Amino acid sequence: MESIIKEAVLEQFCSIADLMYQKGWDERNGGNISLLLRGDDLLNVGESERTREYELGYRVPELSGKFFLVTGSGKYFKNIKTNPKENVGVIQILEDGEHYRIVWGLANGAKPTSELPTHLMNHAARLKSDPDHRVVMHCHPANLLAISFVHPLEERELSRTLWKMCAECVIVFPEGIGVLPFMLCGTKEIGAATAQKITDCRLVLWPHHGIFGTGKDLDEAFGLIETAEKAAEIYMKIAPLGIRQSISDDGLRELAEAFHVQPKKEYFD
Ligand code: 2HA
Ligand code: ZN
């Protein structure tokens, strides 16, 4: 099977996956990534190439014809960099928006990530708000999980707490963080619920499970999760000691103004 994806694109994807593993965000087969491929990311996709086709079980007509580089179901992040062909693959959504085909990788019968419903529904939702959107990233960073046990899960309150943990947060995710109730993962229901949130924010927390981040490229999605995870880490360090002071609402407003971002107004006191 000839590669149909540019080496540099595959390499960057695998390096980011490896970095996520090194950060401890992707134990065992935890986490998954999908990257919407552009025309020039792809080499010739031969019509005659043997492909495997599967039913999605839901409809994403907005994505028909599009190609995605995705991690494989049950695949360990620690193995992605050394063996991409078995652990990741390229899929194409078919014209009907209800089936996909595997056009490269996912060797030996592997399938795309179990969270494919959330990935595809998130791509469809984000593309509506941002035509440059390309990446959906899911992982299990320890501090974002930890904070979901000890902090109220109300979106306004959690977003404010994260913003106040370090000065860059309100600049990096001015729209705050979306939060779902605890739901069964790997289903189209959690996919639809996540996509509803992700329309107007790029980070959605699955309490006691993990985080979804999106972006225009792999760096942006990674940086978003990295920043939220740092804020959660600081909270988990200081909350047990008692918080004596933090960034005021005026301080947040000043940061937003200086860096030309527009945080959600209703999140301010
Ligand atoms: O196993 O992270 O949410 C991969 C996952 C499922
Ligand atoms: Zn997960």
Explain this structure to me?
- The chain is an alpha+beta fold and 269 residues long.
- The chain is built from nine helices and nine strands.
- The protein has two domains: 112 residues, 3-Layer(aba) Sandwich (L-fuculose-1-phosphate Aldolase); 155 residues, L-fuculose-1-phosphate Aldolase.
- A hairpin with a 5-residue loop joins strand 4 and strand 5.
- Helix 3 packs parallel to helix 7.
- The model has no long low-confidence stretch (mean pLDDT 96).
Keywords:
single chain; L-fuculose-1-phosphate Aldolase; nine-stranded mixed sheet; alpha+beta; 269 residues; binds zinc ion
Describe the SSE topology.
Elements: H1 7-22, E1 32-36, E2 52-55, E3 67-71, H2 84-87, E4 88-93, E5 99-105, H3 116-129, E6 135-139, H4 142-150, H5 155-163, H6 169-172, E7 178-179, H7 188-198, E8 203-206, E9 210-215, H8 218-238, H9 249-258
Parallel strand pairs: 7-8
Antiparallel strand pairs: 1-3, 1-6, 2-5, 3-4, 4-5, 6-9, 8-9
Helix pairs in contact: 3-7, 4-8
The chain binds Dihydroxyacetone and zinc ion.
Head-to-tail CA distance between termini: 58 Å
Q: How large a portion of the residues is in β-strands, by DSSP E?
A: 15-25%
Helix coverage percent of residues? 25-40%
* CATH C-level category of the largest domain: Alpha Beta
Strand element count: 9
